[in-house]
Amino acid sequence: MNKGLKLIFPAALALVGLAACGSSSLPASTSETPATMTLKAAHGYHATYAVKAAARGNPQLVQTDVTYVGVLLEDDGTIVDLKVDVMQTKAYGVDATNTALLATSVFTDTEDTKTKWDLLGAYGMKVASPISAEWYEQAYALEQYAAGKNVTTLIADLKGVGEEEVFQADITMHVDAFGEALEVALLENNFREFDVLESEVADLKLGIGMSSSQDAKRTNVNFGTLVLDGETVVAAEMDVLQVPYTITAVGDPVVYEVGVDATRAQVDTENGIIKSKVTLEDAYNMAAASPIGVEYYLQAQTLEEYLVGKTLDVAFAASAIEDDPSHGTVLADGATIGVTVGIADYIAIWEEAALISEGRVLPTV
Fold first, then answer.
1. CA distance linking residue 67 with residue 51, whole number of Å
2. Model confidence pLDDT, tens digit, residues 201-217
3. How many whole angstroms from its chain centre is CA 245?
4. How many CB atoms lie within 10 A of CB 273?
5. Staple partner for 90: which of 73, 102, 126, 317, CB 3.0–4.6 Å?
6. Are the C-beta atoms of 208 and 356 separated by less than 8 Å?
7. CA angle in degrees (0–180, nearest 5) for 309-225-211
């Protein structure tokens, strides 16, 4: 596996190459090599699950909370930018072979599951907050607080120190899951290094995206991160986790109770967490069914590399994609490129990430 992949951003270093090869007849100032620096784009998640008994008119269900972070780091671990979000799914048994997401959950939408950032004030944390602050207001405060901090120091703060002491009056919500997600982001298969001109660092934009889909006995949560220079992709990351379910018929009249399928590789029953496809690496075991014999995490890495130096419009132009009867939208030249997985979900989350990279849109009072 190519861990901690080092990417060279072409637009920036092309300038370096031109300067280094400058003619001796040029003024001395034009032949100086512009200063570059190494950055890391990283993303991580923390996905916990719990079986909830039937209560207050709701059926017995499985609740999964997926905390996601995208972070842009200097080489020494200083945080340039941080984005965070949380998605919560609640799945119940419909019949012996099907599950569905609870329609009365504030997160459930007809097309996709909303995140806490999507919900803004509709999440309704303000009434229970000791500082009368909504979730998105506290999440935004955390994102702002993180800039300039060392990532390992921030992780320690998030996981080990009382929130009021660290963040004073701005953040009182539980923040330990963000620390867990940042720890995952620092694992070697979850960050990408790239070099840029020092003068261009301030122009880089970080965004994240999340989406979900529901199969008969599985919830899929997709997430991804983009770093952009203008509209050009400097770094990209993607992943998906799958929550597998069991369904048991109980009682008379029959009630279909749902559980988490502990036989699946992604389910960590000891810690009550779900692992992603990239985290599983070869244990996801897709290579045997892949038309090119390549595991998911390697195809994900190849798709990320494919994006670098392109805009999303160019990378996923009509001429670059096609419809596959088994996988939906795929790259037209996917077998040659090394990516045959369906990419519609990833296009959607990267488009969302591009929007978020332009800046958080906060409600006006």
1. 18
2. 999 999 999 999 999 99
3. 22
4. 18
5. 102
6. yes
7. 125
